[in-house]
Each structure stands twice: as structure tokens, then as C-alpha cells.
Specification:
This protein has helices at residues 15-27, 42-54, 61-75, 124-136, 152-157, 162-174, 176-183, 246-262; strands spanning 32-40, 82-84, 88-90, 97-105, 108-116, 143-145, 148-149, 186-190, 209-223, 226-240. By secondary structure, the chain is of the alpha+beta class. Strands 1-10-9-8-4-5 form a six-stranded mixed sheet. A two-stranded antiparallel sheet has the order 2-3. Strands 6-7 form a two-stranded antiparallel ribbon. The longest helix has 17 residues, at 246-262. The protein is globular. The N and C termini lie far apart (71 Å). 26% of the residues are buried.
């Protein structure tokens, strides 16, 4: 007698995943250079703990990191610039950082984008508050982007065939002012907010610069010829080689590393 018991299950594919697939398709066409960094954040995390002991408004490690990234990029604006045609770059005054916030929708964990506007200017406390509010905000099926109700054109997007959706992304990337308005000029994604992984992950992005922030892991490190245990943050940085050369790219990474390791802004 045949066993007709079903040995599988089928669930709906979230519309938001369609946009993620399209971003990956377009992101693979970008000429990103990848830097894999080990950042000693021992002192920075100590300063954050000390800061939170004496301030009513608490700050998170992620919020502080976004602030440092925003302020450092502002001094090296070219790393966040977009190409206009073949011979010009556009560098925006503001550093708007797109991050991913995990939300629950119908019992499932779903990633949604949140843009931290003017990350180079706003306080660490403001960034922490925005992230906290986004995490706590209730999500409905009518929300595509946090804090914005779904527009009719956004609902139509998910009904379009793939080639038309990709045409939209090609148009977006060829019109930097539109791209900046919709998604900012920096991407930031962190698996360290979810769990501990001893290693790097390399995201795919359509932004000029993207950060893949891993976990903070205790590792033996040599300081003054002595082996000590330090808190190390694994981070990958994707930078568009079309808009910046290796030398200025290296100067930016060196300054960013220094600012992160000394706990700049705390």
C-alpha cells in the first residue's frame, strides 16, 4: 500500500525577496574591490560601556559604528560618489546609510531597509533611537519600506516581469540623484546583530560603498611584543573601483580603522 503522506511543505515567497534577488543581479555587475578587515574594538567597546553608565540615553555598538563610518566617509567623499555618465562624479553633501532591520511579519523574520539620513551629522543617540524605533515598529503586509506606506508604483513593481524590474534598477543607477533619494549612498549590513560567526561575509550591493559587519570575537593579538586577548571585529568593505583608485581607497580605510579602534566620538 502506497504511503501518500506529504513529506514536504510549501510556503509563500515574500515579495521583498524579489527585490533582493534583483539587487544581487545588478550588484554582481558592479566593480567592487573587497577589503577584509580585522578591527580591534576593545577600547571602543570599553568606552561605550562607560558612556552608557553615565548617560540616560544609551548608545549601541552598531549605532556608534554607523556614526563613525558616516563621519569618516564625509572626509573621503569620493568613496560614496556615483558616476554620472562616463566622465563625471556626483558627491552628495549628506552621508545617508542604508541598513537592514530584521522584522517579524506573519511569524516570519523578514529583513527590511532603513535609511539613516545625515549619518555624518546626527548624534550617536539619534541613530540608536532610530534603529530601536524601527525594530519596535509593528509591521504590516502593506509596508514595503519602514516608515513609508506602500506606494501604488511599489506594489506594481512586484507584479512586473524580471526584465522590466531590472530596467528599473538600471535606470536608478544611471540617475544618481534618484538613487540617492531612494537608497542613500552607503550600505551597511550586520550579521553581528543576529549572532556570533568567526569569519567574514561579503555582501552584494548596488551602492558605491558597502559594509558587511561581522561578529566581535575574542582573539589573541600581539601588542608591544606580547600576546594579549582583544575583541576583534571582522568587517568587509566593498568600494566601487569605478569611482576611486587604490591610493585614496587605502587612505580612507586606514583612517576608518584608526577611528574605529580609538573609539572616535565617544
Amino acid at each position: 500500500m502506497a504511503n501518500n503522506k506529504k513529506n514536504y511543505k510549501i510556503q509563500d515567497f515574500p515579495d521583498t525577496r524579489i527585490a533582493s534577488i534583483d539587487v544581487c543581479k545588478m550588484g554582481k555587475q558592479k566593480h567592487h574591490i573587497v577589503a577584509l578587515l580585522e578591527l580591534d574594538v576593545t577600547e571602543s567597546r570599553r568606552k561605550i560601556r562607560a558612556y552608557n553608565k553615565v548617560h540616560r540615553k544609551k548608545v549601541s555598538f552598531t549605532a556608534w559604528l554607523i556614526s563613525v563610518i558616516g563621519k569618516t566617509i564625509k572626509k573621503h567623499e569620493m568613496v560614496s560618489s556615483y558616476l554620472i555618465g562616463k566622465k563625471k562624479l556626483i558627491m552628495f553633501d549628506d552621508i545617508n546609510i542604508s541598513i537592514i532591520v530584521e522584522k517579524e511579519l506573519n511569524g516570519e523574520k523578514v529583513p527590511f531597509p532603513l535609511i539613516i539620513e545625515r549619518a555624518n551629522e546626527v548624534s550617536i543617540e539619534s541613530i540608536a533611537e532610530r534603529i530601536s524605533d524601527a525594530k519596535n515598529q509593528k509591521l504590516t503586509e502593506n509596508d514595503i519600506i519602514l516608515q513609508k506606506k506602500t506606494k501604488k508604483t511599489e506594489r506594481i513593481y512586484y507584479l512586473l516581469p524580471k526584465y522590466l524590474r531590472l530596467l528599473f534598477w538600471k535606470y536608478l543607477l544611471k540617475h544618481p540623484k534618484f538613487a540617492f533619494k531612494e537608497m542613500g549612498n552607503v550600505a551597511f549590513t550586520s550579521i553581528g546583530m543576529i549572532g556570533k560567526i568567526n569569519g567574514w561575509f561579503i555582501p552584494i550591493s548596488v551602492h558605491p560603498i558597502c559594509f558587511g559587519v561581522g561578529s566581535v570575537i575574542k582573539k589573541p593579538t600581539v601588542i608591544d611584543d606580547k600576546i594579549v586577548i582583544r575583541e576583534i571585529l571582522n568587517t568587509s568593505v566593498l568600494i566601487d573601483h569605478d569611482v576611486i583608485d587604490g591610493a585614496p581607497m587605502t587612505r580612507f580605510i586606514n583612517e576608518l580603522k584608526k577611528n574605529i579602534e580609538i573609539g572616535s566620538g565617544l
